[in-house]
Design goal:
Blueprint (H helix, E strand, L loop, with lengths): L1 H37 L8 H70 L1 H48 L1
Organism: Canna indica
Protein name: UPF0496 protein
Family: Belongs to the UPF0496 family.
Amino acid sequence: MEKLLQRKKKLDGKLKKVKAWRKVSSVIFVAALAAVIICSVVAVVAVVPVGLTGKWIDSLVRKHQVTLEGERELVTSMEFGTPVALGDLENIEVMVDKLGDHLDSLLGDAEFAMSKGEAGVELVVEEISRRMEVLMRSIEDLGKQVAGCSRDIRKARTLVLALKTQ
């Protein structure tokens, strides 16, 4: 997030400079155009090239400004999407931890059954069967969470690529 914020500040600075240069270049070329028009008695032919040059430089600066604005928009969208993705990944981590706890519990039941012999096996088989249902539901929930997170990441990647190509 810090890198995104630094990148955003850097882009804001560049965008501010581009806007300022655009205004400065416009003022310079308006002044030059006015000077040429005033001196048009001597150089009538010079008016058109100076005016065209001003428009050409303005179009170059405008294109650069649009590019910087697009990049800034991209960084902003990444800035908002990153916490969502991190939250999804934390949820997945919690679910994986719970799944590990279920597996440890099942292994503990199996070890208990082995230590008690046949009588213990019958008692524990029912408990293991019940816990297996809980484990399977946990696995299904984890699969749904991972699929949702993956879908969100694909959407975000598509958005970033679309913004980047603009």
